[in-house]
Design goal:
- The complex is a heterodimer of chains A (about 290) and B (about 120).
- With about 290 residues, chain A is α/β, with parallel strands linked by helices.
- Chain A contains eleven helices and ten strands.
- In chain A, the strands form two sheets. A seven-stranded mixed beta sheet of chain A has the order 6-2-1-7-8-10-9.
- With about 120 residues, chain B is of the alpha/beta class.
- In chain B, β3, α3 and β4 form a beta-alpha-beta unit.
- The radius of gyration of chain B is 13 Å and the shape is globular.
- The model of chain B has no long low-confidence stretch (mean pLDDT about 95).
- In chain B, α2 runs parallel beside α3.
- Classes of the chains: A alpha/beta (about 290), B alpha/beta (about 120).
Chain lengths: ~290, ~120
């Protein structure tokens, strides 16, 4: 095993939790050479040298992590969080928010919009149950460029085929040449804001549900903990935190605890009536 | 192991689809047009069918309509896989009893995501 492979392996492990096995060695070459060239170096060993001197938030370090972590966004990515949204979270708030009739949702790493739009579609599909309710979705991302794309709601044929059932595509998108544009009424359910999770984000207010998936992988251990602690302060006492399929809060914070025996779903450890005891509605697939 | 019948008049597409679907643990049967596909289904009904639209002898839509009238022909999950990518074609296929629809060109992730969608994997 080459020296630089060892370096990148350790670097990625520490920076993002990504575990690079020897059989993925080819990925280094194919994904990092473009980054290296952009940074003005012509080989991976040189890139390693440059990285070893980089500070935590050096753009180069971030580029390397981004290039190595699959960053492709799917509609209804991983499915389970959206089933939980429909079968656990929404039923819970239908009871506990019966007076306010309002549910606030935050997508903390909205990327190109697939996640907030998937939530908006799910809400629309539940219209009968949610009639008279206000469902607010706030979608934030670090990148202005990515947010612009999300806001436009225009996707290529490849993108709409990743996770979007064909019936939903016909129902909620309009075809225009080779692209598909999401229904404007779904777009207007979402508020878009540029946000760096390392900054203060109290101004966003209190949320009932926070989707924070596949973004903490970009941060080191302390930053992960800090973002989770800040998020906890913005969550309603009986709110939910949703993390990525391969992520966990274990070892990062004790402020959250697993909820409802669902993988990737957390509630505040201080929650008096744990959401976990709630019996979900019978599973029902949206179709 | 589930069987998937891959119906496409292009042997290249059949080969690509076979490779993807075998990785998803399907046993593959192949047919180059609708008539061949129908014969194959009468012999042994597959669990899944990946179906092209435009083919000689019998096209995908006619095959699907005839399949659904066969005994046990309501069982296979049919995923269209075609260059026809306009709403009118998609709606027609779905009305004829297709379960999902892939617009070519496709890749491994699209096939995987669509097959997941219909509960095949």
């Amino acid at each position: 095993m080459s020296q630089e492979f060892e370096f990148f392996r350790k670097f990625l492990r520490e920076r993002s939790g990504l575990v690079l096995t020897p059989d993925k060695q080819y990925l280094l070459e194919s994904r990092l050479m473009p980054v290296a060239r952009k940074a003005g170096v012509s080989s991976l060993p040189e890139l390693a040298v440059k990285l070893s001197r980089a500070t935590t938030f050096d753009p180069l370090a971030i580029q390397v992590v981004e290039a190595m972590t699959t960053n492709e966004s799917f509609f209804f990515r991983d499915k389970v969080p959206f089933d939980n949204f429909q079968q656990v979270m929404i039923p819970h708030f239908l009871q506990s928010r019966a007076n306010e009739r309002r549910i606030r949702i935050w997508c903390a790493a909205a990327s190109t919009g697939q996640e907030p739009y998937s939530l908006a579609i799910t809400v629309r599909e539940l219209a009968a149950k949610l009639s008279g309710w206000r469902i607010e979705i706030t979608a934030t991302d670090l990148s202005v460029e990515v947010l612009e794309k999300a806001k436009a709601g225009i996707y290529t044929q490849f993108e709409v085929q990743r996770g979007m059932p064909i019936n939903m595509l016909l129902k909620y998108f309009e075809q225009s040449g080779d692209t598909w544009k999401i229904d404007p009424s779904l777009r207007s359910m979402i508020t878009w804001k540029q946000l760096n999770l390392l900054d203060d984000f109290r101004h966003l207010g209190t949320f009932d549900i926070v989707f924070c998936r596949n973004v903490l992988i970009y941060f080191d251990h302390e930053t992960k903990s800090a973002v989770l602690e800040k998020t906890a302060k913005m969550l309603a006492p009986d709110g939910y935190l949703v993390m990525g399929a391969a992520e966990t809060v274990v070892g990062l914070t004790t402020t959250f605890k697993p909820a409802a025996n669902q993988r990737g779903l957390y509630s505040l450890a201080s929650a008096s009536a744990p959401a976990a005891t709630l019996s979900p509605f019978a599973p029902r697939k949206i179709a | 192991m589930k069987t998937c019948l891959v119906v496409d008049d292009s042997s290249v597409i059949r080969k690509v689809a076979r490779r993807i679907l075998e990785d998803l643990s399907f046993t593959i049967a192949e047919a180059a047009d609708g008539e061949e596909a129908l014969r194959s289904c009468k012999e042994r009904m597959p669990e899944a069918i990946l179906l092209d639209w435009n083919m000689p002898v019998m096209d995908g839509l006619e095959f699907l309509q005839r399949l659904r009238k066969e005994p046990g022909g309501d069982k296979p999950i049919v995923v269209f896989c075609t260059t026809e990518n306009d709403v009118a074609h998609i709606a027609r296929a779905m009305r004829a009893g297709a379960n999902e629809y892939i617009m070519k060109p496709f890749d491994r992730e699209i096939v995987e995501s669509k097959f997941q969608e219909v509960g095949l994997i």
